[in-house]
Every structure is written in C-alpha cells, then in structure tokens.
Amino acid sequence: MGFLDTLLGRSKPVQPNLDQLFGLPSAAMTLEVNGTFRPTGYGSVCYRKAEGGAFHQVETEIEELLQSIDGPQIEVTKDQYGYTWLTSRHPKDDMTGLVTDLHAVNSELQDKGFGPYLLCTLVSFQDDRGRKLALIYLYKRGTFYPFAPQNEPNRDNTLELQMRSELTNDLRLEQDLGRWFPVWGAPGL
Residue 9: what pLDDT? Predict the structure, then answer.
C-alpha cells in the first residue's frame, strides 16, 4: 500500500484464512446449546467455473479425494447465476468431517491457483420449527455471516441479527451488513 492508496481511501484486500472454517463446529455447538439450530449435514462451496482442462482436472481430483476420504455424498450443481456448487453431505452429527471436506475443496482450488474463482462456503442448519439458517463464509472477505431465508425474496433479518450476536465469540463475522448477500436456491437450504 502506497501513500496514494491511503490518500484515496483504498484498502488492501483481506486475505482469506481458510482455517477459520474450523470455527464452524464450535459455532454449531453454540447454536445447539442455545436451543435454536442444529446442523443438517449439508455444506457447499460456491465458485465460478473456469474454462480449460486444468480446472476440470482440479475438479475431478477434488471429487475423487472427497469420495476416497470417507465417502460423503457429493453433488455438483450449477445455479441460475452460472456459479457451481460442490455440495457435501455428512451425518448431522459429523460437523467436523463436513468442515474438513469444505476446507479441502477451498484449499485445493486456492493451492492450484483458482482462489480468485471462489465465492463462498455455506453450512446449513434447521430448527424444530423448520426455519432454515446458513452460515456463509465469504472467501474474498475472510468473514462469516448468517443467512435466514424465508420465501424468496424474504429473509428473516431479525433472526440473522440474533445469530450474529450469538456467534460473535465463535466466528469472525462480517460487520458490513450490506455484504450479507442472499444465496437463494443454494444447495442444502
């Protein structure tokens, strides 16, 4: 960062710290202890697919790696905006295994030079009343935020703010509420 960047208000982008994903099991316990939400066993990594054989090879390696580790159910889908979602499903009580898979996907894409294509990582939860909640890790910001979808385009902002206050000790949360983007139709929600 130079003097001109500082003068013009430009800031250095936050570098992602994928190890923050390992805070999700602690956050899941906080949500369960507070009697609100429990994990569904679903987690997804969202990325923009790059053209070319190198990216296809990395995707194939990731799928083979995940299936060889512990045989989670893996599904690759594309959303209406053209983003690819790699979804892993584990038993509901295996949050550590799920997070390990999600970390492996993110790390592999980052290590192979495709980090700029990563968008977010999502882990889903549900309560006894059927309300859904996702904890979303923004790759480019290195922060989490809660997303509580209702019927599109509605979301439960009150619940999201409540979850923010419950999870401040477990996760590095995004402070700019304008960056709490909805992820309508995300796998697992």
Answer: 59
CB burial string 140-158: b at 16+ within 10 A, e below? ebbbbbbbbbeeeeebbee
Specify the pLDDT at position 13: 52
Residue range 106-115, pLDDT digits in tens? 988 888 888 8
User: Tokens 């038993």 appear where?
Assistant: 91
Residue at 189 is within a domain = no
Name the residue with tokens 């995300």.
186
Give yes or no for residue 2 having a pLDDT over 90: no
Mean pLDDT of the chain: 86
How many distinct structural domains can be found in the chain? 1
The domain containing residue 168 runs over which residues? 14-175
Query: Which H helix or E strand runs over 86?
Result: strand 83-89
